[in-house]
Design a protein that fits this description.
The complex is a heterodimer of chains A (224) and B (222). Chain A contains eight helices and no strands. Chain A is mainly α. Chain A has one domain. Chain A is globular and about 55 Å long. By secondary structure, chain B is of the alpha/beta class. In chain B, a hairpin with a 2-residue loop joins strand 7 and strand 8 (200-204). Classes of the chains: A mainly alpha (224), B alpha/beta (222).
Chain lengths: 224, 222
């Protein structure tokens, strides 16, 4: 079977399962909202402080929410050993991984897009004039989180204490991505917003490198 | 073949060859290595040393080999939050079957669950889940069927259905490897018996041999 058809079938299954249970989206969204609201109460930032610290808070909320969301993506395939059924199907390991990556990307992006206006209101940040460029940064950053996180979630799913293992593995690896995403977002929230191409190129390169690595390692990852 | 999990040796020095169309019962107590052997044959577990070969598909892509194998494991390999029909349709599509809807309906009919097609699997009894798991393993008409204690959870009627289904598949030329540690109707069509113990190969009635003596030594299930 062609990879894109297998990916479409797997993605359809993930979306159907999530639309039915809504457990990933709801949990992630509520968690991310709590983080943003708590930071807002804790710092009570002025407009200038929001522009300075806001991007960091926003991306930390995205990152924590992503970690929370990514954990069950493979873990819930363990319940009835459905991952074994997927591994037995005549599809490539890459199709299996890509189906998970795309589903996680859609879920996390949806949560972020809901969170973004809340962040703008709470932190008094004008995002409308830069919304297109901001979305570019969010898409690139989210892709990096999801590609890397899905690979690590596949690794951690076999381990005991996987809930603790995933953030321990993932967060240090995502540190460069976090810095680039925060810097790119901060450059857009300045008084004179200019998207620094250095950071967007860095984000795109990060995505390409980790996506290629996941493609090269997927057979190994999916082995029992 | 040998399979180690850390210091635990699950299989040691096992060499087996199965011919097309054989119906083999893998016998032995818990921990004998039956499930490990079946998972290796399903390409789910890599042997630590040795290899699994499919001579009839030598040189074929791994995906092609996988499309000819079906497995019923200890777990149902079903999604609890999807309905019976959704589960079967998902796997029918994943195996790229023609007319997946028709194949799904036929599979539900064959396992006696057409009335529960739209119900979520989590609402099913253990026996119903097992029937559906067997239907899932058979939906793509595999030429090699691997069954790990498939009668588990089935009532007397379910075991009779399983025996009929396996006999029918065997007559159609399907090679069947089935682990069991209890004697029930599902072993009625068995043509060969192999015993494993402590990860080692024990007795083997051999291809064309008579497995009845070995099977009669198996305790009656239930």
């Amino acid at each position: 079977m062609r990879t894109e058809r297998a990916v479409a079938i797997l993605l359809g299954k993930e979306l159907r399962a999530e639309l039915r249970s809504r457990e990933l989206l709801q949990t992630t969204l509520i968690f991310a909202l709590i983080v943003v609201v708590l930071f807002s109460f804790a710092f009570d930032p002025t407009a200038a402080e929001s522009r300075r610290f806001g991007p960091g808070l926003l991306w930390i909320a995205f990152l924590f929410a992503g970690t929370l969301m990514l954990n069950p993506s493979f873990a819930r395939e363990q319940a009835n050993d459905t991952l074994q059924a997927l591994r037995m199907a005549p599809i490539s390991a890459f199709a299996l991984l890509l189906g998970k990556i795309l589903a996680n990307f859609l879920f996390l992006l949806t949560a972020e897009l809901v969170l973004l206006p809340v962040f703008a209101v709470l932190y008094n940040v004008a995002i409308l004039p830069v919304v297109g460029r901001l979305l570019l940064v969010i898409v690139l950053g989210t892709l990096g989180v999801v590609v890397t996180g899905t690979v690590f979630a596949a690794l951690a799913s076999q381990a005991r204490m996987r809930e603790l293992l995933l953030p321990l593995l993932l967060l240090p690896v995502l540190a460069p991505l976090l810095i680039a995403s925060v810097e790119a977002t901060a450059s857009l929230l300045n008084d004179e917003p200019v998207l620094d191409p250095t950071w967007t190129v860095f984000l795109a390169a990060f995505d390409v490198v980790f996506f290629t690595a996941s493609w090269l390692l997927c057979e190994h990852l999916m082995e029992g | 073949m040998e399979k180690r999990y850390g210091s635990l040796v699950a299989l040691r020095g096992v060499t087996l060859a199965f011919g097309a169309g054989e119906f083999v019962a893998l016998l032995g107590p818990n921990g004998a290595g039956k499930s490990t052997l079946l998972k290796m044959a399903a390409l789910l577990v890599q042997p630590t040393s040795g290899k699994v070969e499919f001579p009839e598909r030598a040189g074929a892509a791994r995906e092609s080999v996988k499309s000819s194998v079906g497995m019923v494991a200890h777990s149902t390999m079903l999604y609890d939050e999807m309905s019976a029909a959704e589960n079967l349709l998902f796997f029918a599509r994943l195996y790229d079957l023609d007319q997946p809807q028709r194949r799904t309906a036929a599979a539900l009919d064959s396992c006696g669950l057409p009335d529960r097609a739209g119900d979520l699997v989590r609402t099913f009894s253990r026996g119903m889940r097992q029937r559906l798991a067997i239907a899932r393993a058979l939906i793509h008409s595999p030429s090699l069927l691997l069954l790990d204690e498939p009668a588990a959870g089935l009532d007397r009627q379910g075991i009779a259905w399983l025996a009929d289904t396996l006999a029918e598949r065997h007559r159609a030329g399907c090679t069947i490897l089935m682990s069991t540690h209890g004697r029930d109707d599902s072993i009625a069509s068995v043509t060969r018996a192999v015993t494993l113990s402590g990860g080692r190969l024990g007795a083997d009635s051999g291809a064309g041999g008579d497995p009845r003596a070995m099977l009669s030594a198996v305790p009656v299930e239930g």
